């Protein structure tokens, strides 16, 4: 099993987190891990992201990755902060090369058959289907995966607690990426108990 396949098998949901305040990072990670979701994606969309990754990486049981890898320099910065894997919305040769150079496992984004086939040529067995809902949702992923035997997908983008089970019912889907477990309002309110409860519900899907 590849490192990314192993991560995707740890829990049915990978929380996708955008963190504005680094002070929220550690207690947020603790709540999610306590709720049964150890694999966490911190998007590189804020100035606090790398510091948040560093803080979360210190939480026992947390496996923290960096999302929204876009540029060739992003993987090294993420890994230096403590990220153990990367996630990208799409895929470029420069990004693949950068991740390979430093042995950072990558969950690369793809939405079309051609994109997935290029990833297969590079040896990938797992991809992020993104943006899932606006790309046609469960029906589109089912149709996309049918001829691409052996590929597994982590659909992300617009997925809710209500729609996640439909994705997880597909044989090609070991997990989904989603933000509903730790919505910004709950994080800002520092409702760690509420987030832990949501994590428990998500881990039981």
CATH level 1 class label: Alpha Beta
The CATH topology, please? TIM Barrel
Provide the succession of SSEs: HEHEHEHEHEEHEHEHEHH
Q: Going by CATH, what is the homologous superfamily?
A: Aldolase class I
Radius of gyration: 16 Å
Q: Which percent bin holds the helix content?
A: 40-55%
CATH architecture: Alpha-Beta Barrel
Shape: globular
Largest pleated sheet = 6 strands, parallel
In short:
With 205 residues, this protein is an alpha/beta fold.
Detailed description of the structure:
The protein is of the alpha/beta class and about 200 residues long. The protein has a single domain (about 5-205), classed as Alpha-Beta Barrel (TIM Barrel), CATH 3.20.20.70. Helix content is about 40%, strand content about 15%. The chain is built from ten helices and nine strands. The chain has helices spanning about 5-10, 25-35, 50-55, 75-80, 95-100, 115-120, 135-145, 165-170, 185-190, 190-205, and strands at about 15, 40-45, 65, 85, 105, 110, 125-130, 150-155, 175-180. It has a six-stranded parallel β-sheet. It has a three-stranded parallel β-sheet with strand order 6-7-8. Helix 4 (about 75-80) links the parallel strand 3 and strand 4. Helix 2 (about 25-35) packs parallel to helix 10. The longest helix is centred in the last third of the chain and has 12 residues, at about 190-205. The two termini are about 20 Å apart. The relative contact order is 0.18. The mean pLDDT is about 100.
